[in-house]
Amino acid sequence: LNRSLAGMGTTIFAEMSALATATGAINLGQGFPDTDGPREIAEAAARAVLEGRGNQYPPGPGIPELRTAIAEHQHRFYGLSYDPDTEVLVTAGATEALAAALLALLEPGDEVIAFEPFYDSYAACIAMAGAKRVPLTLRAPAFRPDLDELRALITPRTRLLLVNTPHNPTGTVLTPEELAAIAELAVEHDLLVITDEVYEHLVFTGAHHPLAALPGMRERTVSISSAGKTFSFTGWKVGWVTASPALVAAVRTAKQYLTYVSAGPFQYAVAEALRLPDAYYADFRADLHRKRDLLAAGLAAAGFGVHEPQGTYFITTDITPLGEKDGLEFCRTLPARCGVVAVPNVVFYDDAEAGRSLVRFAFCKRVRVIEEAVSRLGTLR
Ligand code: PMP
Ligand code: GLN
């Protein structure tokens, strides 16, 4: 294994999902819904396959129908205008978008400031690019970025800020003031920004604001999102980038040699999904809002310290009120103790102390599954 990937052998998501399968436990670890997205969108994918649309290599940047739908979505929800031909790129999930963007934009030795806890592929891709990740720790209980600390972390080697809002795993949604402060620093120091907004439609408290909409940001920001979360088809792996022509061209160059193109028929279906009426987005959010509240109340009743998320489909908890200290050990033994799988946040930190006792539960599950999980967790103390 390449030295840059040392210690990154198996992602925590694979480890914990394998544990759920092996033990038959309820899987509130890896973030994927246990109910598929809209039937008509699944049918659109099936139709595309059967009608021979996208069964051979689609265009490298993505099919025009999808690029147009992505541009329309950015305008419909945020008033952002992107040219579908030069400013939109379809990728194999947000994961490939992140990888291609980081590989395209970083030189060895560059520094990247990223929130921690961080989504695990950030660390791997920054390492593969030969760059250095500089963490800005979001600390319990509020998990807000300290903007003075951010300013202090910027050096002449800083090339890029990697932002994630709504934030996995803490559920933090950046406020307009926080975004404005980040944007100001990016402009002042002439930094590129990659913003991972895959949970853009999953905000329960406050609202999602795309970083690219702030003054001075459109030209320096690579915005990334994905159909997986918004439409509950995480297995389709359709993601996208919106950015200036120069940045999209750079990311496309890297993407060409990673996957060349992304799966064709799903692109037709996602183009339809993005055009679903506002009621789809509102109902989806309302359903998850109820599930957030259900799981949060259940976890609190079971004795966990609950950090209520503003967005995403995850709740970060503190296990110290249960008399536990070590989240990794807790998650490895939880299936045997009570038949539930969760994810230890500590694996998303360099500063292990900051994340040691934090454990993440996903609530993108059927109500009866959440209720059963909560009743099992209630036996812990
Ligand atoms: N970024 C974050 C913050 C995520 O939580 C996820 C999904 N696990 C991804 C990126 C990857 O998205 P995709 O499945 O579209 O590759
Ligand atoms: N994004 C999901 C999570 O955070 C799953 C990611 C993955 O399996 N790579 O759980």
Automatic annotation (TrEMBL):
GO biological process, one term: amino acid biosynthetic process
Enzyme Commission identifier(s): 2.6.1.17
Domain Aminotransferase class I/classII large: 25-376
Keyword Amino-acid biosynthesis on entry: yes
A cellular-component GO term for this protein: cytoplasm
Localization of this protein: Cytoplasm
Highest taxon of the lineage: Bacteria
Cofactors, names only: pyridoxal 5'-phosphate
Pathway named in the protein's UniProt entry: Amino-acid biosynthesis; L-lysine biosynthesis via DAP pathway; LL-2,6-diaminopimelate from (S)-tetrahydrodipicolinate (succinylase route): step 2/3
One Gene Ontology term of the molecular function aspect: pyridoxal phosphate binding
Cited Gene3D superfamilies: Aspartate Aminotransferase, domain 1, Type I PLP-dependent aspartate aminotransferase-like (Major domain)
Record field: catalytic activity: N-succinyl-(2S,6S)-2,6-diaminopimelate + 2-oxoglutarate = (S)-2-succinylamino-6-oxoheptanedioate + L-glutamate
This protein's UniProt keywords: Amino-acid biosynthesis, Aminotransferase, Cytoplasm, Pyridoxal phosphate, Transferase
Chief subcellular location: cytoplasm
Subunit structure: Homodimer.
NCBIfam families linked to this entry: PRK07777.1 (NF005855)
UniProt family annotation: Belongs to the class-III pyridoxal-phosphate-dependent aminotransferase family.
Protein role: Involved in the lysine biosynthetic pathways. It catalyzes the transfer of an amino group from L-glutamate to N-succinyl-2-l-amino-6-oxoheptanedioate (N-succinyl-2-l-amino-6-ketopimelate) in a PLP-dependent reaction, yielding as products N-succinyl-l-2,6-diaminoheptanedioate (N-succinyl-diaminopimelate) and 2-oxoglutarate.
Protein name as it appears in the record: Probable N-succinyldiaminopimelate aminotransferase DapC
Protein species of origin: Kitasatospora setae (strain ATCC 33774 / DSM 43861 / JCM 3304 / KCC A-0304 / NBRC 14216 / KM-6054)
